[in-house]
Design brief:
- The complex is a heterotetramer of chains A (315), B (610), C (276) and D (112).
- Chain B contains 21 helices and four strands.
- With 610 residues, chain B is mainly alpha-helical.
- In chain B, the strands form two sheets. In chain B, strands 1-2 form a two-stranded antiparallel ribbon. Chain B has a two-stranded antiparallel ribbon with strand order 3-4.
- The radius of gyration of chain B is 25 Å and the shape is globular.
- In chain D, 78% of the residues lie in helices and 0% in strands.
- The longest helix of chain D is centred in the N-terminal third of the chain and has 31 residues.
- The chains are: A alpha+beta (315), B mainly alpha (610), C alpha+beta (276), D mainly alpha (112).
- At the A-B interface, helix 1, helix 2, strand 7, strand 9 and strand 15 of A face helix 5, strand 1, strand 2, helix 10 and helix 12 of B.
Chain lengths: 315, 610, 276, 112
């Protein structure tokens, strides 16, 4: 697999429909750049050739330009091709085909967003979702299920198996949120009152992505305290007194003590990898905690996914 | 000739002056009914709001460049107070207030009032040879209603909980459950909408009814056409937002549920338990009503800018605009289509395939007239004798900047590519290219261009260059990186983008954007100096310093009350530059055919000062 | 000499109308979009709702019909007022203008009764399984709070959204007569803990009432605005008749256009809210 | 008072409501009033008829309202004989009104 990099252009792409999204974006940009460069060269040429100078006079009447008409027709045609060839059919297929045709191996998940957390709700072994009611909501039963032991509910951690169609019913219970996994080119608003199905299929597991990802140098500062996402240290750090603060390969979460220790040891940047490098972000402004409304996405193997569900059921 | 003049007697000016009676300072400059004074009022107020909105953004940029680090100056943190900036670090809620109010202020209190209120008010009656707007009292009222709206918006920063913080789009239910500031925002918007409605009625009537004799619709300068289309957009697109504002006020004040679906759970408690709300509304209804306005609003922002650029390009290439009629038809078509594309802002809300196909098709169609307008303007350069005056530099910069803004709209208008780019920094880059390096550059061009008409003096060229070049470069170094940030998948409205690994990847770009933004503020200093200094100390110029053809240059500078000393009569189209067989290179619209053929560049004779 | 704005009185030779007439029509066009947006919202919310009450089962049709007739009549008197000016009969103008204002006021009075009836009508949602619910035989009852018998009934003066707003924790409630009967059942005592939700028929009660109050309220504001304008032209504004009759007639024509538009809106509000 | 008298023939051509003509219109106003009253009675009557289909009832009520509205607009507001510029403005308004009425509800009905 290609190395997974972050920044400056498309992020890595681990979904089946992603390449067509990227391709369309590329094509539109080819068109845009061609037009822009064409205009730009023509404009610069005009500015130089027709600058005001002694002896040069403006022409009242111009030779007939056919070029502009051709250019406009060409733009319209290219847009038509992009529209009819890409956008409409591919969009229709990724938005509609699967939830309707019953794929036997599909995984159905419900995603419920709230300020500021994501809940992922999987049916238990019976394959049915329990009835839920807002009146039953309490910390131990965040979705208000009739019998919380019969379904699996995960908060801020989204597991699903690789190479299988995943159907997610996205909704929100307070304000509008945006369900967005940039690495999978998946995005949809979570609108209260609507339960909207979207689907996608992953092509790489979390472990493969992790292996292909280059480590990042994370700036150490007080802002890290309280972050929930687990990291894996790529270098060992010794505290000021010589004891091991972090060993290479350690899985850890930034806590107050750790950050203090790192700062005390004079560490400004730390080489780490995210344990779950695929992230789910909120795309719609949803309040003060909007930017922190993050969930980890884990693309599992079948065994990992089964273990995950079993673990959630056991609780 | 003046005796049979259907537009007024030779004494129109005196009569007009007599009409307003009072000449005290208060009535002459504060509650003036003269379109020129009102235009200047709009302009100054709009520039102040523009500056204020810019300041809000500079604050935001600190948090984005240096997430969670205290502000560099303790006095600033102290000024903001402990609620807004505890320990000098901007608070997330305050950051959202800054974001929401930056958008609102820039669009509704800054750019539109300058583009329409200031330039439209000042220039349109002059360009059509009218003594004033059709309804001077209404004109005054629309300024003061706008002013009140602005004061309400500013005051909302000081109410408990601060200003509106749900984005300039104010999507419910977030805005429904937001603090009091949102109610102030809604009331302020109702004022601003009312002001726009009054103004647009005035503009349309003025342009339709009060053109000078001989000034047929297809002899109107393109700027007037742009203002006419804009006025229709304001007239017919704003009321739905007013309706939406009323509905949200009902929701917030009287507890209705227009935008609240049943079964909401806020903070893990059923919302009905805490508020007794009934439910049954639709969260997306607001988006429909909002975007029904806000998409045409994009063209309200851009059309007057195109009008300004067209005037300046024609004047500084010393030749007629290429495809004048095509430009006019394209502008009308653009205005018309802008009413039926709005839901491309809502592709990610669960829209079905039929409607999304409809809206992406109309969106692709609307790109055609934009391409035509831009192409016409660029082709107009061909065969000219191009003067690189300061207004022309800004106008020329507008063309590629608007092109970038327009072209980057294409991937957002197609559902499939919108899938990745929706709600990311790409969107921010896109519409800022249209509005900031696009429209605002055109507004600067307009200020430099019409300044001699307003004051009788030119702005300094040296300071103009010092303003233009850094502004052009910095505008690009602010907004170009945003496309790359958006491509990387970074969502907009993020208080702290370093929460995400893909956000950390583009954090250096964020730093670059912030520094460019702060430097852009510095780059405006020459403009501010120029603007105020030239008022009294600028180079004195004659009534038509740019040797232009349109009617505003037939009036004295500054034009007196009632505008024209002799009422103009129009004999030709708006851009008769370099007409073959004439010695001068311009032929004003009002020059009589016989005197024009004599080719006196400074024709017609303008009576001595008053 | 009032102003030198061209075509402020005489019609423009090309367009055939004076400025103000074009202005008022443009304003009305924007009003069409304003009410259009509200109607559109109404349709969207109604089509999206699971059930929607028939307006005529809740609202007072006779009063609304009366109001329709009043408003139509006022439109006729308005057009007659303008026609009188055209025929140079200032006395008749004053008469018809006065009649129009009286009819408009009549409309508002009827409206006030209609609103008042709604704001004093209550709905109680009873707690499932409570004694009161068993007694009433239903979870929701509508009716009036019996101010005479409830010692603290007077405490309920303002807008009540939840039972927590009750001062004394209980009310005496007279339920509506059952269908087909006109006899009110006897008052019952309801304690706060019996009630899930207590609300009058105000805008917050449900989306039907939200739509009803918003649309009729906004229309009512338009009527009030019209009354102010009509009064102005009946009293101080009519002095202009002596100095500039043509301009005055033009102003009355514009006022009339506005007033007919208000009538027009009601013509659509009446069936969509009350009858369907 | 306006100090620019327009050419007299133009005025005659565009001002249809001379005193005589207005007098002739009075009968029309009363007829329209009568028609509006009758239509109001019909629309209330239909509502109490309990038509078999809800859509039929809506259609009937809307048709009557449209007729009534047209009468008011055409006769009281003189739209039957009005300047072209007003027709154009209103035509524009009607198109956008139609878009405003149709598109949001169509979109929401097509929601998944």
């Amino acid at each position: 697999m290609d190395p997974v990099k972050f920044g400056y252009w498309f992020p890595a792409d681990v979904s089946t429909h992603g390449p067509s999204v990227d391709l369309l974006i590329d094509y539109v940009h080819y068109l845009a750049v061609a037009l822009f460069v064409g205009w730009g060269i023509f404009m610069l040429y005009c500015l130089i050739r027709f600058r005001q100078r002694p002896g040069h006079k403006a022409q009242y009447e111009l030779p007939h330009f056919k070029g502009s008409k051709y250019a406009e027709v060409a733009v319209a045609l290219i847009e038509l091709v992009l529209l009819l060839g890409f956008s409409i059919p591919v969009w229709a297929s990724i938005r509609y085909e699967l939830p309707r045709t019953d794929a036997p191996d599909k995984v159905v998940v419900r995603c419920i967003a709230e300020q500021f957390a994501w809940y992922f709700w999987y049916p238990g072994p019976d394959g049915e979702f329990e009835p839920a009611s807002a009146d039953r909501i309490k910390p131990s039963n965040p979705l208000g299920l009739r019998d919380p032991s019969r379904d699996a509910v995960s908060k801020d951690e989204f597991h699903f198996p690789v190479n299988r169609p995943i159907v997610v019913y996205v909704t929100s219970r307070d304000v509008i949120h945006g369900f967005n996994i940039p690495l999978m080119r998946v995005k949809h608003d979570a609108v209260p009152g609507l339960n909207i199905p979207i689907w996608f299929q992953a092509t790489k597991t979390n472990d493969e992505i992790f292996a292909a990802m280059s480590p990042e140098r994370l700036r150490i500062g007080p802002a890290l305290v309280g972050r929930k996402e687990p990291y894996i240290a790529m270098e060992a750090v010794k505290a000021a007194d010589g004891s091991d603060l972090l060993k290479s390969g350690d899985t850890f979460v930034f806590g107050e003590a750790l950050v203090k220790g790192l700062t005390g040891a004079g560490v400004q940047e730390l080489s780490v990898k995210l344990k779950f490098p695929v992230e789910l972000a909120c795309a719609q402004l949803c309040g003060n905690g909007h930017s922190g409304m993050r969930a980890a996405v884990s693309i599992d193997t079948e065994e990992q996914f089964a273990a995950f569900i079993a673990g959630k059921m056991a609780k | 000739m003046t005796d049979t003049h259907p537009n007024g007697s030779p004494g129109a000016r005196e009569a007009h002056g007599g009409g307003h009676g009072e000449t005290s300072f208060l009535w002459k400059y504060v509650f003036s009914q003269d379109h020129k004074v009102i235009g200047i009022q709009y302009g100054i107020t709009g520039l102040c709001f523009l500056f204020f909105g810019f300041t809000l953004m500079m604050l935001m940029r600190w948090q984005l460049a240096y997430p969670n680090q205290p502000l560099p100056w303790p006095w600033l943190a102290e000024l903001l107070g402990n609620i807004r900036a505890p320990g000098g670090v901007l608070e997330a809620g305050f950051y959202n207030q800054l974001g929401a109010m930056h958008g609102t202020i820039m669009v509704f209190l800054g750019v539109v009032p300058i583009a329409v209120g200031a330039f439209g008010n000042y220039v349109v009656p002059l360009q059509i040879g009218a003594p004033d707007m059709a309804f001077p009292k209404l004109n005054m009222a629309s300024y003061w209603v706008y002013f009140c709206g602005g004061v309400i918006m500013l005051a909302s920063f000081f109410v408990p909980g601060g200003a509106a913080s749900s984005g300039w789009t104010s999507y419910p239910p977030l805005s429904n459950i937001a603090t009091q500031g949102q109610t102030w925002w809604l009331v302020g918007m109702v004022f601003l909408i009312t002001s726009s409605l009054l103004g647009s009625v005035n503009f349309i009537v003025t342009i339709v009814q009060m053109r000078a004799p001989g000034l047929s619709m297809f002899r109107l300068p393109f700027f007037v056409w742009a203002q006419l289309v804009t006025a229709f957009l304001l007239l017919l697109a704003f009321p739905p937002l007013e309706a939406a504002g009323v509905l949200q006020l009902m929701d917030r004040v009287f507890g209705t549920s227009f935008f609240l679906p049943s079964g909401l759970v806020v903070n893990a408690i059923p919302y009905a338990q805490t508020t007794g709300y009934s439910g049954g509304g639709s969260a997306l209804l607001w988006q429909h009503l909002f975007w029904f306005l806000a998409h045409p609003e994009v063209y309200v922002l851009i059309l007057p800018a195109m009008g300004i650029v067209a005037e300046i390009v024609a004047n500084n290439t010393r030749k007629p605009l290429w495809g004048y009629r095509l430009l006019v038809y394209a502008a009308i078509f653009l205005g018309f289509m802008s009413f039926i594309v709005w839901a491309h802002h809502m592709f990610m809300t669960g829209m079905g395939t039929v409607m999304s196909t409809f809206f992406q098709t109309t969106t692709m169609i609307i790109s055609i007239p934009s391409v035509i307008i831009l192409t016409c303007m660029i082709l107009s350069l061909w065969g000219g004798s191009i003067r690189f005056s300061i207004p022309m530099l800004f106008a020329l910069a507008f063309l590629p900047m608007f092109a970038i803004g327009g072209l980057t709209g294409l991937p957002l208008g197609l559902t499939l590519s919108d899938l990745h780019l929706h709600d990311t920094y790409y969107v921010i880059g896109h519409f800022h290219y249209v509005v900031a390096p696009g429209t605002i550059m055109a507004l600067f061009a307009g200020i430099y261009y019409w300044y001699p008409k307003v004051t009788g003096r030119k702005m300094s060229g040296l300071l103009g260059h010092l303003h233009f070049w850094p502004t052009l470069i910095l505008m690009n170094s602010i907004f170009m990186p945003m496309f790359f940030m958006g491509m990387a998948g970074l969502n907009r409205r993020m208080y702290d983008q370093t929460v995400y690994v893909h956000g950390r990847g583009v954090q250096p770009l964020s730093l670059m954007v912030s520094w460019s933004a702060w430097m852009l503020a510095v780059a405006q200093i020459p403009f501010i100096i120029n603007f105020f200094k030239s008022w009294k100390a600028g180079e004195k110029v004659n009534d038509n310093p740019w040797e232009a053809t349109t009617l505003e240059w037939a009036a004295p500078s500054p034009p007196p009350h009632g505008n024209f000393t002799t009422l103009p009569e129009v004999h030709r189209g708006p851009y008769e530059y370099s007409v073959p067989g004439q010695s001068g290179d311009f032929c004003p619209q009002h020059a009589r055919p016989d005197s024009a053929s004599e080719g006196t560049p400074s024709a017609p004779p303008v009576p001595a000062a008053h | 000499m009032s102003t030198a704005i061209p075509w402020s009185v005489k019609p423009h030779p090309v367009t055939g109308i004076p400025n103000a007439k074009l202005g008022i029509w443009l304003f009305l066009a924007s009003e069409v979009m304003l009410f259009g947006a509200l109607f559109s919202s109404y349709i969207l919310i109604r089509t999206g709702s699971e059930q929607w009450p028939m307006g005529r089962t809740i609202l007072n049709i006779p009063l609304a019909t009366l109001n329709t007739v009043i408003l139509i009549t006022s439109s006729v008197t308005m057009v007659m007022a303008w026609a009188s000016l055209k025929m140079n009969q200032f006395g008749k103008f004053k008469l018809f203008q006065t009649l129009t204002i009286l009819l408009a006021l009549g409309f508002m009075v009827v409206k006030a009764f209609e609103y008042g009836g709604k704001l004093h009508h209550y709905e109680v949602t009873l707690v499932e399984g409570s004694e009161a619910a068993d007694k009433a035989g239903a979870l929701k009852i509508t009716g009036h709070i019996d101010h005479a018998t409830a010692g603290n009934g007077g405490a309920i003066t303002s807008w009540i959204r939840s039972r927590d707003d009750l001062h004394d924790g209980k009310i005496s409630f007279v339920a509506d007569p059952p269908a087909g009967s006109h006899e009110h059942p006897a008052a019952i005592e309801l304690a706060a803990e019996d009630m899930e939700r207590l609300t009058f028929f105000g805008p917050h009660r449900d989306t039907f009432f939200a739509v009803y109050f918003t649309l009729t309220g906004l229309h009512g504001i338009h009527v009030l605005g019209g009354i102010v304008v009509l009064l102005y032209f009946l009293l101080p504004g009519s002095r202009m008749w002596r100095t500039d009759p043509e301009r005055f007639t033009g102003r009355i024509e514009c006022t009339g256009l506005y007033w007919h538009f208000v009538d027009l809106v009601w013509i659509f509000l009446f069936p969509t809210l009350y009858l369907l | 008072m306006s100090d620019h008298p327009p050419p007299a023939p133009a005025e005659a051509a565009v001002m249809p409501h001379g005193a005589e003509e207005v007098r002739a219109h009075l009968k029309i106003y009363l007829a329209v009033f009568f028609a509006l009253g009758v239509l109001t009675a019909i629309t209330v009557g239909i509502a109490y008829l309990d038509l078999p289909s809800k859509n039929l009832a809506i259609a009937a009520a809307m048709v009557i309202a449209l007729v009534k509205g047209s009468l008011v607009a055409l006769y009281f507001m003189h739209l039957i004989k009005e300047a072209r510029v007003i027709y154009w403005s209103l035509a524009l308004c009607v198109v956008f009104f139609a878009a405003l009425m149709a598109l949001p509800v169509l979109t929401s009905m097509e929601h998944l």
